[in-house]
Amino acid sequence: MPTQRSDDTGSTGKSARRPARLPEHLEPGGEPVTGDTELDGRLINESPPAPEDERVVTDLGLTASRWSGGRLTGRRFRRLRCVDVVFVNCDLSGVVLEDSGLRRVEFRECRMSGAVLAGARMEDVLLLQCKLDTANLRMIAGNRLELLDSELGRADFREAKLNRTGIHDCDLSEADFSGTDSHGLRLHGSRVHGIKGAGDLRGATIGPDQLVDVSTALFAASGIAVEDRR
């Protein structure tokens, strides 16, 4: 069973993630998700109709909104801006975000396998019980991120900034942390078997139960073999 950590809104302390702030009343929204649009205070259920002539949605802004059950598989967004937004049970598999920013955003029970968030600016973002296997998180600029009880096998964190980030109770098997800025990164409770780039996890904190897997990854990165004497 995953370790319980305060509540789903983050840890306590001055560096705690700030949760999304939504108004009590949200207006139902069902209009197409198109570019050059600002949606504020909306309750979006299922999948709004997609514009047939717009392969890439550019300059979409979402604020103070909740999106439940959306199916956006393989959609591409450029300069998506989300502030105080909660995504619940959405299928975002293969979604591509280009030059996008997320602040006080929560993803809960979302499918995001193969999502491409490379280079995204992410501050105060929660991913809870999400599936992000093989996700591309390369070069994200992250601050106060929380990834809890999620699948991150073979996720690509290369050259990402993971400052004051917690990845807890997640499956990080074969994830790549090469070149990361991991000052303040905490990995307690996560499966770290076969991770790559372990030598670049300077400043990160692990638990005693993770020592063998991380040490093995460090030996492998240094070219040191561990085997019985023959």
UniProtKB/TrEMBL annotation:
Location of the region described as Disordered in the Swiss-Prot/TrEMBL record: 1-54
What is the protein's given name? Pentapeptide repeat-containing protein
Tell me the organism's taxonomic lineage.
Answer: Bacteria, Bacillati, Actinomycetota, Actinomycetes, Actinopolysporales
Where along the sequence do coiled-coil regions lie? none
- The organism's superkingdom is given as Bacteria
InterPro entries (alphabetical)? 5peptide_repeat, Pentapeptide-BTB/POZ_domain
Any single Pfam family the record assigns to this protein: Pentapeptide
